[in-house]
Structures are given as structure tokens and as C-alpha cells.
Amino acid sequence: MCRLLFVLAAAAAAVPCSRGDSGAGLKGENSACCSALSSDLPSILSPSSPQYTIRTASYWSRSAQLSPACIIQPRTTQDVSVVLATLRTHPACSDTQFAVRSGGHMSWAGANNIDNGVTIDLGYLNGTTLDVKTRVARVQPGARWGGVYAVLDPLGVTVVGGRAAGVGVGGFLVGGGNSFYSAQQGFACDTVVEFELVLGRGEIVKASAQENSDLFQALKGGSSNFGVVTSFAMQAFPAGPLWGGVVSYPKSTTQQHIDAYVSWTAGLNDYPYGSSLVFWTYLPAVGDIVILGVYEDTTGTVAASPAFDKVMAINGTTSTMRVDSHKGLTDELEQPTGYHDIWFTLTFKNDPLIYAHIVFLHEQMVQAWKSESGDPDFITQCMFQSIPTIFAKHSIAKGGNMLGLHRLAENVVMLLLNIAVKTPELEVRASAMLRRYVERIKEFAESRDGLVEWVYLNYADGSQDPLASYGLENVEKIRKVAEKYDPDGVFQKKAPGGFKISKVGTIVVVFTAADCIVVVVVQVELLVVAPVPILLLVRVPSKLVIVAHLILGVVVRIKVLSILVLLVRVKLLVASFLVVPPACIVFADD
Ligand SMILES: *[C@@H]1O[C@H](CO)[C@@H](O)[C@H](O)[C@H]1NC(C)=O
Ligand SMILES: *[C@@H]1O[C@H](CO)[C@@H](O)[C@H](O)[C@H]1NC(C)=O
């Protein structure tokens, strides 16, 4: 029996989880909740309405286009408050889970949408206004960065925001936010001076350096763990056009690009007006990998710094380098829609051999996928972005964020590895393949002592654990603030999407049967272990199960860190299948 269960466990653990359908309840039940919500608000979309189809199709990635029981579209902060209060207290909604969508750019299923549940679509909360005197811009979560710059550019100011016009404001800002201006000013979240948000019980609160300052800090990188942000006050600043654009190159220039980017990353603290990223990308139109370089000088000066010398010496095939508005440059960096997208990210030291190995593995991956999938219509990106120490310096000067980058002593590099494919079936296979390549990259980086713990939330796959990578201290801060401002755990349980602090680090998988229990503690990508709650699902009232429950319950309650560490560090390599995504609780029962 036990052996059978292990086999079962292997099968269950291999199934990717949190595809947005975790216990969201039956469709029928939730449509009663939708009806209850519709008596509060006029704008509620059922699956049969054309607007529902339009809003669903407006998610950037097909992977995120799920089927909620209804989509609710608040028009004011007050509406959001009413929706949250109803979801929490109305009897018809007691088992209903919900998701929150701002721009809807995060690609993985369940990050911003929910099958059979209620999706709160903040699309109408999309305003941008500027207080000319204080230069504070108020931007709402449902706006997209292209729309924000369209308002601000003509006023001669801008904000530290996204680099692709179609990315939404809300998720980007609570997840960090890398910008053309980050070397100059820090992550976008660091430039927020006040958040307005609705908490789980429907209270509308503000968070700033003066008011609810713990929440203010936690919202900068702590993501969707506290409430629904309805407005961001951002410190804008005078800005004119930038010099920037995209240059393409043949892949034969690989080594020159690696050398150039190593130098660029090493020198970025001395040239904070610059911004650059480089990526190797398989493009179906070309049928091969090409290299694209994206360069900006935020002062608008052409090739202003010797920092560009190395890369400008590489002969490109095409170039769009020009002086243009912030909006114009972000329009150019839009990514194609109509695909199922899988993104993974990791961070490594600025070591040329690690870049070279990643580029090599990316090429291998492209070849393997070409022959294995039989579908030439796919896109990959193997993208490098500098994360210099100056980012954290700006953050600290502005009150600090949750990303934990102050722990890094040197400039490092973030990798975004992604693939876009055409069908859900291909997505499952591509995801498994990508995961294998990510593991190989990690192994290589580790072998050169070059793997950096940091995982950037906005690029992370649902199976990654970015909050854990922000360090024990920040994990605890986020946890405390979440408990304080969301004492009912609405944003942990009722809104399960995105990266949740209650799921950080440890997973306990319990398999039970009449004659045995298998308790597996799996730790994923967590170098320091936080005293995390153990997620233990036990349904069988057998004596042994109760004992296991008690033991683990005590461990949780008294937070015996050392025992947890022991359990976790032992890394129960019962079999290689124990690569379970975090947030994935597998429950098997006889
Ligand atoms: C805001 O949303 C409304 C409704 O979807 C849309 O008509 C309008 O164009 C949007 N405004 C901006 C600035 O994107
Ligand atoms: C770039 O192209 C020019 C003209 O075609 C050529 O003379 C030069 O050697 C090339 N430089 C590099 C680095 O390949």
C-alpha cells in the first residue's frame, strides 16, 4: 500500500499545480455569489457577455486567459471596497475565491485570474493625473505604462515605470519594477510616495512614510499579500526625450556581446543615466536565433558614455536608435500576443563563462524544441539585465523595499528565459523543458560559485518562490504586515493567486492510507529557512494521521526553527520526483 502511494505521490507531484483551479468551488455556487455582487455593482460580466470575451482576450498571454464565473469591473475605490466586503460577508460568497487583475501581463495561469471564481478587473481604474506643483503623479493600477507616459510626456515629466507599453501599473509596482531610470532612481516601487488600498474587510487605507509606514514598505515588492491597491502616488521628475532603440545582430557576434555586457554591468554604477539589456531570441520569422540589444541614455544624449563603446563597435544588422519620447521607446518593446508564455528567471554573478554557457544551453533548447515540437511558430528569449548595487542604494535612500538586494556586494545579472508556444498542450511540454534547462543553468552557475539567491518576482514562474529569495528578514516583515493588515487571511486563502507569503518556502505533502502516512517536507529554492507555517492537509481521522498532525502542529506553533531546518535541509531525496512547485499541495487519499 505504501509503495503504491509513493508511486501515486510521484505522479501527483509531477503534475504542475496552481493552474487557477484550486478548490474554487462549483460554478453554480459561485454564480450565486456573482448575483450577490451584481446587486452592489452594475458592471459585472458573465461568461455569455461579449465584454467578458473581450476582457479575457485582453490578457497579454493566453496562459492567463482563464474562465472565471464572472468578471467584476469596479469603477471607483469605493466599488472595490463594496466588492471585497461582499465577497467576505455574503453567505453566497463564503466559498468563493477571487483573483485581482490590473494590466494582466503576468503570464502564468492563476497569477491574475481564476477559473470558476470571481475576477476583479481593475481595467476601469486606469487614470493618470499630475499635480504640477508637487510633481506627484497619481496612477491607477489598471493603467498601462504606455498610457501613463502618454499623459506625462507632453507635460515634460515622467515616472520610473515599465519599459514595455502594454505592461500594467498595478502588478509591476508592487513587484518591484525595473525601468530605464532604475540606475538613476531605483526600482519603480521605490518612487511610490503613497499607496491607497482596500484591505480584506473593505476598509480603504493609505500607506506612506507617515501613515501605516510598515505597510508602505511592505507594499514595495511584497506584491499581492495585503490588499487591492487602487492608486499609486509616484514622484515624477522633469524628463525630456531619451536616446534609445533596438539593434539586431547575427548570432555570430555572441562572444562580443558577452564581453560588452560584462563590462556594461560592471560599470553601470558609474553611468546611472544608461540602461541596456541584451537578448538572444529565436524568431519564427527568421527561423533562427538573433541577438537584440536595447540601449537607452535617459538624458537623450547620443552615445553619451564610453560605456557604450564596446557594444557600439559590434556591427549590427538593423538599428532603430534615435531620440524619442519615453512612450515611443516603450511602444517599441511590446511583446507579441497570441501565445502561451512561460517565463523563468534567475540571477547570477557577472561571470562571462556563465553567460556563455546560458547562451549555449539556450541554443540547445531551441534546437531540441524545434525537432521535438514540430511547430516552428514559437519564440524564445534568453535575456540579460544588469542588477547593479546602485539599485539597492536608491531603495535604501527612499525608505527601503522588500527585494533584499542590499545583501548583494557586487553588480549581478538577471536572466529571463522564456518561451512562447501556440497551444496549451505545447505549453505543458515547453514548461517541463524550460524547467530542465533552468536546472542545468543553475547547476553550472553553482559549479562556478556564481548562482545568486535572488529571484525577481515580476519575471518568476508560478513554480518559483521569489518572496523566499528576498531573505529571511524580509519574509518575516511581509508575513507580519500581512497578518496585521489582513488578519482574516483574505489575500492568502480567498485570493490565492500570485506569490503568497503563507506559501513561502516549505511544502508538506501528506499522503495517507489506512496503513501508512507519508509526510514529505519539500523545500524549494530557499537557502535560509523561514519559520513558515506548514501546510498540512489531513482528512483521514486515523490515529497515525492525528499524531503526525499534532507533531507538525507543535512544530509550527512553537516555531522550532531548528527542527524545520533539519527537516528541510535533509532534502528528502526520496526520489528525483520531489521537484514540487511551491504552493503546490498534493493531497492523496485512499
Ligand atoms: C481606461 O479604460 C476605459 C474603459 O476600458 C477605456 O475606454 C479608456 O480608453 C482607458 N483609458 C486609458 C488612458 O487607457
Ligand atoms: C564592421 O563592418 C565594417 C564594414 O563592413 C568592417 O570594416 C569591420 O571590420 C566590421 N567590424 C567588426 C567588428 O566586425
From TrEMBL:
The keyword rRNA-binding does not apply. The keyword Membrane applies. One of its GO terms (molecular function) is FAD binding. Residues 1-20 form the signal peptide. Residues 64-239 form the FAD-binding PCMH-type domain. Belongs to the oxygen-dependent FAD-linked oxidoreductase family. This is FAD-binding domain-containing protein. It comes from Clathrospora elynae.
